[in-house]
From TrEMBL:
Its cofactor is heme b; FAD. HAMAP family: Hmp (MF_01252). Is involved in NO detoxification in an aerobic process, termed nitric oxide dioxygenase (NOD) reaction that utilizes O(2) and NAD(P)H to convert NO to nitrate, which protects the bacterium from various noxious nitrogen compounds. Therefore, plays a central role in the inducible response to nitrosative stress. The record marks 56 as: Involved in heme-bound ligand stabilization and O-O bond activation. GO terms for biological process: cellular response to nitrosative stress; nitric oxide catabolic process; response to toxic substance. NCBIfam families: PRK13289.1. The gene is hmpA. Residues 28-165 form the Globin domain. Heme b binds at residue 112. This is Flavohemoprotein. Consists of two distinct domains; an N-terminal heme-containing oxygen-binding domain and a C-terminal reductase domain with binding sites for FAD and NAD(P)H.
Length: 434
């Protein structure tokens, strides 16, 4: 296979003009319906998770083909219903000024574009969501209330459809961009730790691939032996753009406890997918990304496999910038710590890079090798002693890690526009710690 090349830097993002155009053309909800939605928001919020759980149950019975799109593991854990509940509530609470919520809705639109969600699927969602509200609230959900929420859903769906149309158009119009799924070959498979393996992906057609903004992700489509449905999973790109391939670094998700299934796709990737195999993927997406226009110091903080988008940022900064970079990684111990040698070598070669390692439960070998700067967890005291406050902070990791870092940064007084994070779930789970 001959080497592939990349095209000039592209974003796959909506710009301010597109936001303004969408906001101007949205048909507002009827004033009376808006009053009803606002009056019933508290009771809907109180029952939001029950409503969205019932919504998914209804939808999958009525349209089982949609199981090919939605992550079934997240249905079992409740993660997907919680995320949808938070999104619907937040959007409904801003119906009188959709411009304030459009940037947050773009996060959803980006994921939808990556998953190839289409306009014709929105009526299905609306019908089952309204049916779930009626079922959960019972007689309290009068026809007038259901009609009002139908109006609210219509505005939210219209905003998302318009955003996604713009994203589909912009993605396909980029040099080397594409819509739908494109076949990529696993060029290399590299074990990075006991639980994380990297897959280097090159296009099967050997044509050029578009660049992306460090921090973005792709969707991988998997047909797993013995599984009745297609599985779609979103994985952050873990190397910088411009290298002729896309790299994803996947953690094998073992079953954390009884009743919670192991990661179907991650297990299959680790145990069955080999070099030379084909993986269909969508073009890069995501609103969590490195702002290369800034010249301030950068702090990259990761927990576990959350380091993958930050590796892309680190490698890009080293290649293209002289900004001061501090890379902080927290892991259980050295056995599960991916890319530790790469980061150490990067720090030696790049004078603008510092790094810190924090192990929750270091092994004897970790202690012997002095492989970490701190044991336990990241704390506010440690951050104030070791990190620059006048920096842009980017972080990603498990929910407890995200809550702790987000809370510590805000207690430290870091401005909200300097705090950037990626989380594949309900953002309310992160902000609720404050």
């Amino acid at each position: 296979m001959t080497p592939t090349t990349t095209t000039p830097f592209q974003s796959f993002q909506l710009n301010h003009l597109e936001f303004e155009q969408i906001a101007r053309t949205l048909k507002p909800i009827d004033r009376h319906q808006l009053e009803i939605v606002n009056a019933t928001l508290p009771v809907v919020a109180e029952n939001a998770e029950a409503i969205t759980t019932r919504f998914y149950q209804r939808m999958f019975v009525n349209h089982p083909d949609l199981k090919n799109i939605f992550n079934q593991t997240h249905q079992v854990t409740g993660r997907q219903p919680r995320a949808l509940a938070a999104a619907v509530y937040a959007a409904a609470a801003h119906l009188n000024d959709m411009t304030s919520i459009l940037p947050a809705l773009e996060r959803i639109a980006q994921k939808h574009r990556s998953l190839q969600i289409k306009p014709e699927q929105y009526p299905i969602v609306g019908e089952n969501l309204l049916g779930a509200i009626k079922e959960v609230l019972g007689d309290a959900a009068t026809d007038e209330i259901i009609d009002a929420w139908a109006g609210a859903y219509g505005v939210i769906a219209d905003a998302l459809i318009r955003m996604e149309e713009a994203l589909y158009r912009d993605t396909e119009s980029q040099p080397a961009g594409w819509n739908g799924f494109r076949n990529f070959v696993v060029d290399k498979k590299v074990q990075e730790s006991d639980v994380i393996t990297s897959f280097y992906l090159k296009p099967e057609d050997n044509k050029s691939i578009p660049e992306f903004i460090p921090g973005q992700y792709i969707t991988v489509k998997m047909e797993v032996d013995g599984e009745p449905y297609t599985h779609l999973r979103q994985y952050s790109l873990s190397d910088r753009p411009g290298v002729g391939y896309y790299r994803i670094s996947v953690k094998r998700e073992d079953s954390p406890k009884s009743g919670i299934p192991a990661g179907v796709v991650s297990s299959y990737l680790h145990s069955q997918v080999e070099e030379g195999d084909i993986l269909p993927i969508t073009a890069p997406a995501g609103d969590f990304h490195l702002d290369m226009a800034q010249d301030t110091p950068v702090v990259l903080m990761s927990g576990g496999v959350g380091l993958t988008p930050l590796m892309s940022m680190l490698n890009t900064l080293v290649e293209q910038s002289s900004r001061e970079v501090t890379f902080v990684h927290a892991a259980i111990n050295g056995n599960v710590h991916a890319f530790k040698n790469h980061v150490q070598e990067t720090k030696k070669q790049a004078l603008n890079v510092r790094s810190f390692v924090i192990y929750e439960k270091p092994t004897e070998q970790d202690v012997k090798e002095h492989a970490f700067a701190k044991d336990g967890y990241i704390t506010l005291d440690w951050m104030t002693e070791n990190l620059p406050k006048d920096a842009d902070f980017y972080f990603c990791g498990p929910t407890p890690f995200m809550k702790a870092v987000n809370l510590a940064l805000k207690q430290w007084g870091v401005p909200s526009d300097k705090i950037h994070y990626e989380f594949f779930g309900s953002f309310g789970d992160i902000e609720s710690a404050n």
